[in-house]
Write a structure and sequence with these properties.
The protein has 1502 residues and is mostly beta strands. The chain has ten helices and 108 strands. The longest helix is centred in the first third of the chain and has 19 residues.
């Protein structure tokens, strides 16, 4: 079986830019290369003998032959495929490949021209014995490996040498680092830093001039319009615009010279663009000089395969001279430079950027099945980061709310939608839209049918359905690594770096922006404030504006390095509470603030190595404990790490920071959390941290010595955080400085504050606190604390949500019970800030006004009235009161009492003996809201009309037995449930007979639990019909294989449904059956079990050996293998063949039963499908380990290069009469199935033609041909291993129409010129000509005077006077002759007059004249094998001598050409033209007065 890989289907080449450092990027493997044309010459190693002979086998290969004569069968080395020049991107692997020949087999070595190859980890020489291919791999390229590499092939008779260059493309512009000596000098003496700066400044201009533009930029410029030059220069940072234009013009001229070798015209270049369907396309109009020229497509220099249909990822569509390249299923790795080459010349280049590639779904959202009142999670992974996604639910946009929680990961690859507390109404399709792509899935809600919960509200579940857990995280991480490797950069990253630099340059700011990240500071109203637009802020971290009201973003450090807004985790509100905690608070009546929240969160800390670092946060309660985490790991106090608590402040201190101290720290307390980063920085010799040096360098200044460094005296270690307080409760703002000696000032909305009634300002060490004793609406506003030029601020937001009193909640929550048909009334008073929205719910469904439901609303209360209640009206009643500041809920249960439903049947008969009948039933489905007190039972004997009361049983008993029966009688029973609300309807049983024999049904066949040589353990299930009485036991019987006798295995009935049979003989096979016993006796035995061997368990067989593919086709694969090794297990009894397609994750078994042969043919495969195959050996001990083929298999025959199967029946020329059917059948062989293309005169055939392709045959069919179908038809077959073309000339014509009337004229005595009107078909048929026939009055028969006349005149000679002549003119083509066009009779009469001679006197005239052509030669286009007739007319006196020439060679004496000159009409006749007759023909007429020349050209069509 042949396996297709990129190595055996690629054809690559290398061409270099003139005067460029780097050349065209080519395939890094150089696999599949055919012979290339290069001007490089190789240098061989020293010649071994003095009489060595040097020769060249092909371009770039030098062969040194050591001996003049070679023995028979021996040869010197040579390259069948030589290594080619490569241009590879830095960091990748370059592979040179070569195939050599020679006898004896040459030894191959590799060498560098300017370096060594001693490092085995860098250079690897590989030989593939299957392909006879030698390879040199250069791993993880750097600029040092750029060199010329030589390949030497040596044997006893000679040596062959070939050289290939390797060019390494560096990624971006690398900055040269400071020499080591300068670094050491700077460390020793910081004052040397100024000299070093001067030295560098002087070199900057030179460095700028030496910057080399990337080859990719030149390729883009060469294929772009002039109007795009400025945009490209700005995008790639090109500043020398004039120099670029000068160099670009030179390169364009050189490129056009190269392109002129292969193309005639190139126009309408359209750069790559992505259409609405997400397919990238670029176009160009191209006219090739040779239609067989090969076209290649490269991406970043690596050749990529393509076809002419949208089957592969890359495709080419040709319409006339227009070529359209398409790329479908775009992914980030498809970004790069695309080049179109004709042979080895670049024609067009265009760049596909990351920004142009639409977002795709690496992992789409999947269907979620959730239980009612459970949370459902949808999640997906995008192909590249994006925050602009929209979630849809039931065709409506979804935003974050109490019902929906929308989150995304930090890298913006993972997006999640959490649907909380799902109900049946939430069932539907949910979708996520990202750009032009979307992904959708169903949410299925399953309701539980537990009767105990019917009519009641189901409990809220804490479980979550959906989600892939760590799997989706690993997928996103792999995608992020892939994007990082591809060089993907988010669009806002550059903006963030600029903002970071701007923050560092601020005059009085030292904190800057943490980690160089810009952003927006989240404000209380949910709006972000841009950096730099507020005088109060000089920098802030990446802000994130939430959709909900009054939620700020997560900010890192501001101007002073403190966190302005505390970070909030997923599902938390701005007080640090989770949604679940908020719901609990609301359901409790919304009394007071949440139990725990942060009044001051953590802030990022920058610490110097070896110094202390401290993280501090504060809760609103000093009774709460918390846990510290670092990078997800729990922390505890140990050496160097101290965790402490002072009141509500929680402190983590690192006594001596080092590299291991850096990381992400998190503090959690009772469900709320805050986190920050600790960044440990190195100190340079001047004592400055890396961050301080970076800021000084950006500001253009910096201390040169340590004593000039001035650290800020005061900075915040913990900043203010926004506080949400309820009206009437306390509110507290706390911040902490690094010094307890500093004093500060508090401000509110720009006004200075001081302690007064209800407002307390205090200071405890370094902590500064502002306390509002009882918050009201006037307390809301922006608060700021300033100390020695440093400041921090936050908002206080006073809320007045709806409030329910404890007494009202306790009274409302008590269950309410009403009888069916009565009314129920519920009332709830409340307080708070209007307006209010009050909603009533029953079991989660909102109640609206209707016939039996009425909702009343007062200024401070709401009432629900339910009239004529029924059982279905009961359930959980909830009232929800909402205003702008919050929501509060209260719940109660409404119970509607009614009669119970009847007990549930059918009744199960437990015993039916002659003296007793016992049966049982199930309790009522609905007890009416009251427990069942007892059941009343009655009996009726069949045939009688009276019912006899038997008695009552308690409500928790569901069975009854009576002995008041007679043998053989039939009875019916009635059962009725009794509650405090009344009696239910009765449940009546079927007829039950007392004492009739009823045997049990057969049990199921026994199953073997275990089997050894001494014991076989069986198990079985009870019979489905017990016969109306209890099962007393079972009888187990055995039978030996080959015997007809069943024997019991035990004397007593077996009580259990499991038994160990020990009365067996080792090595024998047994079968077993079971029968059940009740009061009536033993029932029918069961179906016997399968035969079981009494032997110890077998071991499963081992792996099969030598699995291989013996034959293949497009639908079948034939396999063979050897038996497993007996040392690995017991012998195999059969084999299973399993197959898995490339797009499936599951193995499919081809044979249901094991096969005994060591070969198998898999049928029904998909043509060209990719499959994985394995074989499993099996025996009685089980199945062994599967043996899988080493690689995938393609369903196709062995590879065959396309080849036409032509014979004498296949014609290259066809003549078809117009209106008839044109049918051309072409047979070929090729594997895999080739792409078949038909062209007519170089363009696709018209839609009138039908192309039919079958296995090994292609047919062109034109049902009703027309003259316009004439042309040269070319069929091309192409697969991965080559292509072939075959041409057929088809001429569609018809019998010609006759020419117009013929006229006769005498121009020269003794001749007559016949002229006629052309046939109407002359313009439609290039091969149409004329034939003239003549007869006279003496000879009455017609004979041909001239044929193959391509003009409309003919001159007949030897016309005699006294005779009458008649002419006929015929139009003639490949189909035959037309009707004749008759001429009038022509006659020259003889006049007999008296002969007299009168000698006139006249002046003698000179009639001599130089030769001149009256009728010139005509250009001829003649098909191969046809006749050609050339003629012209010449005059002159004396008669000129005429000579014919072809290519300056005289033809007058050539026997292949018939030359004649009759009365000035010169003609030449070629019987059958061939390709050798192509050329220029010249007729030269000469006499004594001069010379005349006339020429023409003959073109022979193939």
């Amino acid at each position: 079986m042949y396996q297709i890989t990129p190595e055996n289907c690629s054809h690559l080449r290398a061409s270099q830019f003139p005067k460029m450092k780097t050349s065209k990027i080519t395939n890094g493997t150089a696999s599949g290369q055919g012979p290339t044309h290069s001007n490089s010459t190789g240098q061989g190693s020293p010649v071994k003998k003095r009489d060595a002979i040097k020769r060249r086998s092909k371009t770039g290969v030098i062969i040194t032959q050591f001996t003049e004569e070679l023995p028979d069968g021996c040869s010197f080395p040579d390259f069948e495929r030589k290594p080619i020049a490569l241009t590879i991107q830095e960091g990748k692997t370059a592979t040179f490949k070569a195939i050599v020949k020679g006898n004896p087999k040459p030894e191959v070595t590799w060498k560098r021209v300017k370096g060594t190859m001693d490092d085995p980890n860098k250079f690897k020489m590989i030989y593939d014995k299957f392909t006879d291919e030698h390879a040199l791999q250069v791993i993880k390229l750097t600029g040092q490996e750029a060199d010329n590499y030589k390949c030497y092939a040596t044997n006893d008779y000679g040596e062959a040498v070939c050289t290939a260059g390797l060019i390494v493309i560096e990624i971006g512009f690398k900055k040269k680092s400071m020499p080591q000596e300068e670094n050491e000098a700077t460390r020793k003496d910081p004052t040397e830093f100024r000299k070093l700066l001067r030295k560098r400044v002087s070199k900057d201009p030179e460095a700028k001039e030496e910057k080399v533009m990337d080859e990719k930029v030149w390729e883009i410029l060469l294929s772009s319009d002039k109007k795009d030059y400025e945009r490209i220069c700005i995008e790639y940072g090109i500043t020398d615009f004039r120099g670029m234009l000068k160099r670009l013009n030179e390169m364009k001229m050189e490129r056009e010279e190269e392109q002129a070798k292969f193309i005639d015209a190139l126009s309408n270049l359209k750069p790559i663009a992505v259409n609405k369907e997400g397919i990238a396309e670029f176009e160009l109009d191209l006219e090739l000089k040779d239609s067989n020229s090969r076209i290649f497509l490269y991406k970043d220099g690596v050749m990529i395969p393509f076809n002419k249909e949208m089957v592969m990822k890359h495709s080419l569509k040709q319409t006339g001279k227009k070529y359209t390249f398409s790329i479908k299923d775009l992914l980030p790795e498809d970004a790069g430079l695309y080049q179109v080459d004709v042979e080895d010349t670049t024609i067009f280049s265009t760049d596909l950027t990351f920004k142009a590639i639409p977002i795709n779904f690496i992992c789409p959202i999947k269907e979620v099945k959730a239980q009612e009142r459970e949370d459902a999670l949808f999640e997906c992974v995008l192909s590249h980061p994006s925050a602009s996604v929209v979630w849809m639910g039931k065709n409506k946009p979804i935003q974050s709310s109490e019902k929906y929680e929308i989150t995304m990961s930090e890298d913006k690859l993972i997006h999640r939608l959490l649907v909380k507390d799902v109900m049946p109404v939430d069932k539907g399709i949910y979708a996520i839209v990202a750009g032009i792509r979307s992904s959708s899935a169903w949410l299925m809600v399953e309701s539980t049918d537990d009767p105990s919960t019917r009519g009641k509200k189901k409990a809220r579940k804490t479980t979550r359905a959906g989600g892939s857990g760590d799997l989706i995280e690993s997928i996103a991480q792999e995608q992020a690594e892939k994007l990082k490797h591809l060089g993907f950069k988010p669009e806002d990253e550059g903006v963030a770096e600029d903002r970071a630099e701007a923050g560092a340059r601020a005059g009085d700011v030292t904190g800057g922006v943490i980690n160089g990240m810009g952003g927006q500071r989240g404000l209380g109203d949910g709006q972000g404030e841009p950096v730099g637009k507020s005088d109060d802020h000089s920098g802030s971290g990446p802000g994130k504006v939430e959709n909900g009201p009054r939620q700020g973003g997560t900010g890192d450090a501001g101007a002073s390095g403190q966190r302005i807004d505390s970070g909030l985790g997923s599902g938390q509100d701005i007080r640090g509470l989770t949604d679940d905690q908020n719901r609990k608070n609301k359901s409790a009546g919304g009394l007071g603030e949440p139990a725990v929240h942060f009044t001051s969160g953590l802030s990022d800390v920058h610490a110097q190595k070896g110094h202390a670092a401290e993280l501090v946060c504060k809760l609103n309660s000093d009774q709460s404990e918390g846990v510290w985490f670092k990078d997800g790991q729990t922390l505890s106090s140990r050496d160097g790490l101290t965790i402490s608590k002072e009141g509500a402040c929680h402190d983590l201190t690192i006594s001596k920071a080092d590299e291991s101290s850096s990381g992400k720290y998190r503090f959690e307390a009772e469900g709320c959390k805050t986190e920050a980063h600790v960044i440990v920085e190195e100190q340079d010799s001047s004592g400055l941290t890396d961050d301080q040096n970076r800021k000084n360098r950006r500001a253009g200044r910096g201390p040169l010595t340590e004593d000039t460094i001035v650290e800020p005296a005061v900075h915040f270690t913990s900043g203010l955080s926004d506080v949400h307080a309820q009206k009437g409760h306390a509110a507290e703002l706390v911040c902490k400085l690094n010094s307890d000696q500093s004093e500060g000032v508090w401000f509110k909305d720009g006004e200075k504050l001081s302690s007064r009634d209800g407002l307390t300002i205090s200071k405890e060490g370094a902590c500064h606190k502002l306390t509002i004793a009882k918050a009201d609406e006037s307390s809301s506003g922006k608060y700021r604390f300033e100390a020695e030029g440093r400041k921090t601020e936050a908002h206080v937001i006073v809320e007045d949500p709806p409030v329910l009193s404890k007494e009202d909640i306790e009274y409302f929550s008590k269950p309410i019970a009403v009888k069916a048909g009565q009314n129920a009334e519920l009332k709830m008073p409340f307080e708070g800030r209007p307006p209010f929205k009050v909603s009533w719910f029953r079991d989660g469904e909102e109640l609206l006004d209707d016939k039996n439901v009425k909702v009343e609303m007062g200024p401070n209360h709401s009432r629900l009235l339910l009239t004529k209640c029924k059982r279905k009206n009961g359930g959980e009643i909830k009232v929800k009161i909402k205003n702008d500041n919050g929501t509060v809920e209260a719940m109660t249960n409404l119970v509607v009492l009614d009669k119970p439903s009847p007990p549930q049947g059918p009744v199960e008969v437990l015993e039916s003996s002659p003296t007793c009948i016992e049966f049982k039933w199930r309790p009522p489905r609905d007890d009416g809201g009251a427990p069942v007190l007892k059941y009343s039972l009655e009996r009726q004997q069949v045939g009688r009309n009276t019912w006899t009361k038997l008695g009552e049983v308690p409500g928790n008993t569901h069975s009854f037995a009576t002995n008041q029966v007679e043998h053989g009688r039939k009875y019916c029973f009635r059962i009725q449930a009794l509650t405090a609300e009344g009696a239910s309807e009765v449940l009546e049983t079927d007829e039950i007979t007392a004492g009739m024999k009823a045997y049990p049904s057969p049990p199921a066949p026994p199953k073997v639990v275990s089997a050894t040589s001494k014991c076989i353990t069986l198990s079985w299930s009870a019979p489905h019909n017990t016969g109306g009485s209890r099962i007393a036991g079972y009888i187990v019987e055995k039978r030996k294989k080959g015997s007809n006798i069943w024997s019991r295995v035990s004397d007593e009935p077996i009580q259990e449904r499991k038994f160990a049979v020990k009365d067996i003989v080792e090595g024998q096979q047994f079968e077993f059956r079971v029968s059940a016993i009740n009061v009536s006796g033993a029932g029918e035995p069961s179906v016997p079990s399968d035969f079981i061997f009494a032997r110890d368990p077998m071991k499963p067989p081992g792996k099969i050996q030598n699995l291989k593919v013996t034959d293949s086709s497009y639908t079948t694969l034939s396999l063979s293998w050897a038996k497993p090794n007996e040392d690995e297990g017991d012998a195999a009894k059969g084999y299973y063949v399993e197959i898995k397609s490339a797009d499936s994750l599951h193995w499919r078994r081809c044979n249901a039963a094991p096969i005994g042969l060591n070969s198998y043919t898999i049928k029904g495969l998909k043509s060209m499908g990719m499959y994985f195959i394995r074989v499993v050996a099996a025996n009685d001990g089980g199945e062994g380990e599967p043996q899988e083929l080493q690689s995938h298999i393609l369903a196709m025959p062995p590879p065959v290069r396309p080849r036409f199967l032509t014979d004498a029946s296949v014609k290259s020329f066809m003549v078809v009469k117009a209106g008839n059917t044109v049918r051309a059948n072409i047979n070929f062989e090729s594997s895999p199935i080739p792409d078949v293309t038909w062209l007519k005169d170089g363009i696709p055939v018209s839609k009138r033609a039908t192309i039919t392709n079958a296995d090994g045959m292609s047919q062109l069919l034109i049902p009703s041909s027309e003259r316009t179908d004439t042309g040269l038809y070319t069929v091309t077959i192409k697969n991965l291993f080559g292509q072939e073309s075959f041409s057929i000339e088809i001429r569609v014509t018809d019998e010609p129409k006759p020419p117009g009337p013929a006229q006769l004229e005498e121009n020269v005595p003794g001749t007559v010129t016949v002229s006629w009107v052309p046939s109407p078909d002359e313009k439609l048929d290039s091969r149409l000509h004329y034939m003239v026939m003549k007869r006279d009055s003496i000879k009455m028969s017609w004979h041909t005077a001239a044929d193959h006349i391509f003009n409309n005149k003919f001159t007949a000679v030897n016309i005699m006077s006294g005779r009458r002549y008649f002419f006929r003119v015929y139009a003639k083509n490949d189909m035959g002759l037309s009707a004749p066009s008759e001429s009038p009779a022509w006659e020259i009469c003889k006049k007999k007059e008296t002969f007299s001679v009168r000698m006139p006197t006249y002046k003698q005239n000179d009639l001599r004249q130089a030769p001149a052509f009256i009728v010139p030669l005509k250009t001829h286009f003649v098909p191969h094998g046809y006749e050609c007739y050339m003629s012209c007319a010449v005059k002159g006196s004396p008669k000129p001598y005429v000579t014919w020439y072809r290519n300056n060679i005289s033809l007058n004496q050539n026997a292949n050409y018939l030359v004649s000159n009759v009365h000035g009409v010169c003609s030449m006749h070629i019987m059958g033209v061939s390709a050798e007759d192509n050329g220029e023909y010249v007729v030269v007429a000469e006499n004594a007065l001069g010379r005349a020349v006339c020429s023409t050209r003959l073109t022979v069509r193939e």
